[in-house]
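Thread: "does anyone have the structure for this chain?"

Original post by V.I.:
We have the sequence but no experimental structure in hand. Need at least a predicted one for the grant figures.
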Amino acid sequence: MYCRMKKDHETARTKHDIYSVVSILILLGSLLVITMISFLSEFGHHPDEYDVKECLNWGITHWIWPDMRTVGIGLGDTYSWYGYTKVCNYTPYFLIAGKIAWPFKLFMDVLPWYRMPNLLLAILLMFILIKRLKDKPYLMLGFGVCVQAWYIFSYVTADAQDFLLTFISIMLLCDKESLLWKTIDSEDEKRSKIVLQCILLGLLYGLILLGKYYYYANVMLAFIVLVSYMIKQTSPEVRKKLLLRYILIAGTCAAVWLGRCLIDVHYYGFDRNSAKIEMAEKYASPDKKPSTPVEEQDVTWKMASKGYTIADFFKINDTWFARTFRSFASCRITVTGDNFYYVIIALLYIFVYTFIGIYLCREGNAFLFIFGTLLNISGVVASLGFSYISDCQPQGRYLLPIVLTTCYLGSLSRSLWNNKVFRYAVLLTGVMSVAYFGLKDSRELIDLTYAKNLILG
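Reply from O.Q.:
Generated one for you, tokens below.
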């Protein structure tokens, strides 16, 4: 009996080792492609890279967010054709990444120094994942099966920082041995240590709130999970302890966000929008200027304010869903070609997600699965709303919070990862993604003639 149990244990361990090895190969493959794209793709082939590079350049020599109306310090170079500068977003990305990029700018000459901060973030994330994959196989769901999650690390975009910070927050939420759970459950009498840990967690969530709005869904997920945990406690003393720690975390988070708000209040009072309109009039392309007659504006620009209905939106943008999914499962916004890959990857996504749902419902976690699913749906609706209300951008990166929510859901069931069919489905999804990323997407982005001319002059 003992020998049989030992043999079964060794067999299970071998299967998990195989899963870990293949997962690591997938991640290393994606890192290789990210690195190649970072060094060998032509400048401007990526979303908004012209103005975002200037934002990064501006961040090299500045330490605080500017008044968007400021002249004489090169801020005008950072404006996009939308008439807005991303330097004035709430994120500290450009202020931090600019300092990281500075030494690369000094020594890399004509090479793409401006992409190095995000490449370093990719290496950091890969290191974290590879170190933990063996014991936490669910982490593959948060990064290893989505091309767009890899792609944002290969060029200049604040999305890379937002994704990394939110991924870390999800890792903490998934792992009962993490800093998050040790902080809220600790019986340590050293209050100073608990306070410091709560402040660190609050800073993390605060920085996420300064980023792209679509990551708010993952903060909401953490809020619901933690509040549910507190409600389940039977001891009033434990509830009180948890509530006090939650308040400290939330208070620190709010302080970070409000601190950034106060900078804008100092610049604009409570009428930031007027400054945005003023600058849009100065820097936006003619088809997006506020003063341009409606009939002469880009038809997909702020369609809701022009009286278009959502039905009109879909008549004009009838491929919105297809383009959004394609740029989520790859890195290019397209509706033509390669249908085989997109159909198969869509079926694999559905299969994996359904598998998770079945296991969680069987094990009594139906509420969290339903809530997570509603968050994922709301992410699609929010992306659609942005396209309808502001600018039609069927961007797959807007849906990246979905993979992070799915990662958390996948972490709730240990027995799920003992199912070899499920493990193979996850690995197949990763293998197909990295193969398409390397063999198709990278070939459309990398121009070896450009790279040769860049290096040889």
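V.I.: this helps a lot. Confidence is low (pLDDT under 50) at residues 1-9.
O.Q.: and The chain is about 70% helix and 0% strand.
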